[in-house]
Structure formats: structure tokens, C-alpha cells
Amino acid sequence: MFKISSRGGARRGPVTRLALLSLLLISACAPLIGFPADPTDTQMLADQQLIDTYYSPKENEEGRRLLRNQIVSGRMNAYESSYSNFKRRLNGDANTINLGADLSVLGLAGAAATTGSIATATALAAASAGIIGAKGAVNSDLYFQRTLPALLAQMDANRARAKLPIVRGLKQSDDDYPLALALIDLDTLRDAGGIPPAIGGITQQAVVDKITAEKTLSGFNTTPAATCLQKFILKPDPEGKANRALVAAKAQALGINIGFVTEWVTDPATDPNQLSTVARQVGCTGI
């Protein structure tokens, strides 16, 4: 925070306004919230009469089912609207902040270079540096443009999964799917459209992909016999070449027709009993 003296206010008025603009831009660079706005409280007030009627002892089972469906549909529509606004904000804020920060940095830097006051120039330069730092924080944030499409796709997938039990439940009787259970599922739907669950989903998928890739690279076959034979046939030539020929001969003696020894050893479809037999015959211990 900096202060500009009131003396010479007429001469420094534009500079003061530019400095105030810089502060507004810096405050605009605050991180966005990670979840859509929660309309639950508003919907509870709107649905209160329906809820009271639903729990009335005079209401029959069919009436409760219709009331349940009406309450749940209203909540789902409210959550859908809130989520839609959240996505539009995520898509728009990063570009707006970055463009505003760029223009402000140019204006402040120019004003700092041309003003006659050393104190004012120093303050404007500091404000310019602050905006650059804030802009950098935005660019490195989770809402950065290249990351956003993956997050939005994951949020959509999370919400689709959360809607499924609700849609199925609304086809059931009120005894099988009462309003209390529907409200629990609605809370899950409300939170499914947030950034943290999306990050969790992407991270979990990345772990699965990593494990799959590692299995692919290792040839899947990690049995003791396969591991021993791999070390045996992959020794440096000429020893490795002789070992491959020996493994091929042992396999052929068992009636196994193989093309390449390495593929046969690492193939997950290879009979583990055959691998164990050959491994013992070439001197692998503990098989």
C-alpha cells in the first residue's frame, strides 16, 4: 500500500486514479473459489411448504412421491444453474484478469517513467511490480487456461455420476427412495461440480495410467520364473546369445513352438508352468 500526498492534487489526479485502478486489479486477482455457489438455503425456503406437506401424516404414499419428485427436481435445476454460472466464470475470469493486468502494467510503467515526482514514480513502479506478481499467481493457479478443459471435463463426469442414483431413485416409490435419502444424493451432486473433486479424479486416473504403463513396459509377466529367465537371456553377448539359444532349445524339447525367446518369456499369455520348467532346467533356483 502506498500514499500519495494531497499537495499538487490537480497535477497528480490522473496518476492517483491510475494507482487506484492498479489496486483494484490486484484485488481482482484473488483466487476463485473451488465450488459453485450453494443455492440450498434459498431452495429450502422456496420448498418449505412442499416439505411440510410431504411430512404431513395426512399425505398418502403417491402424494409423497410426487412431492419428493417436485422438490428434488427444483434442487437439481438450482444446482444446474449454479454450476453453469461457475463454469462461465472459470472460463472468463482468467482471460479478463490477464488482459486487465497486462494493460495496467503498461500504463503504470509508462506513468512511472514520465512523472516528475520521484516518490510517485517509485510508488507506481511498486504497484506495477505488484500487479506482475499477482498476474503470475493467476497464471500458475489451477484455473490456468491449459488446465481448465481437463478440470471441466472431470467436473462434468463427476456430476453425471452423481445424477445417476437420483434419476434412478425418482423412478422408485417413496418408501424405497424417501426424500431424506434423495437429499443426501443431492448434496453429493452439489459438491461434485467443484475443483477439488475434479483434481482428485484426474489424479486417480493418472495413477491408474501410470500403473498400466509400468505393466506394459515390464511386459506384464513378473512371475519369479519369467524374471529369472529375463535376466538369463538378457546378459551381454556372447553369453546372452548362448543363453537365448539354450532357452529356445529347452522350450522346443517340451513341444513349445516359439518365434522369439524374449517375447515368449515376457508374454503374459505364456504358460507359467512351462516357464517354471525351463527356468529350472537352465539353472534358476527357487522356482
Model description:
With 287 residues, this protein is mainly alpha-helical. The chain folds into 2 domains: 9-215, no CATH class; 224-281, no CATH class. The protein has 11 helices and no strands. It has helices at residues 9-28, 40-54, 61-114, 118-139, 148-170, 179-192, 195-217, 224-233, 239-253, 261-266, 272-281. Helix 3 runs antiparallel to helix 5 (148-170). The model is unreliable at 1-12, 18-31, 99-116 and 136-140 (pLDDT under 50).
Offer a concise description of the structure:
By secondary structure, the chain is mainly alpha-helical.
Task: Supply database-style keywords.
287 residues, mainly alpha, 2 domains, 11 helices, 0% strand, elongated, disordered N terminus
Please state roughly what percent of the residues sit in beta strands, choosing from under 5%, 5-15%, 15-25%, 25-35%, 35-45% or over 45%: under 5%
Fraction in helix: over 70%
Q: Which value, in Å, is the CA radius of gyration?
A: 33 Å
The helix-strand sequence is HHHHHHHHHHH
Shape descriptor: elongated
Number of strands: 0
Beginning-to-end CA distance, first to last residue: 73 Å
**Main sheet characteristics:** none
Count of helices?
11
Low-confidence stretches: 1-12, 18-31, 99-116, 136-140
Determine the mean pLDDT. Answer: 75
Overall SS class: mainly alpha
Number of domains: 2
Outline the fold blueprint:
Elements: H1 9-28, H2 40-54, H3 61-114, H4 118-139, H5 148-170, H6 179-192, H7 195-217, H8 224-233, H9 239-253, H10 261-266, H11 272-281
Helix pairs in contact: 1-3, 1-4, 2-3, 3-4, 3-5, 3-6, 5-6, 5-7, 8-11
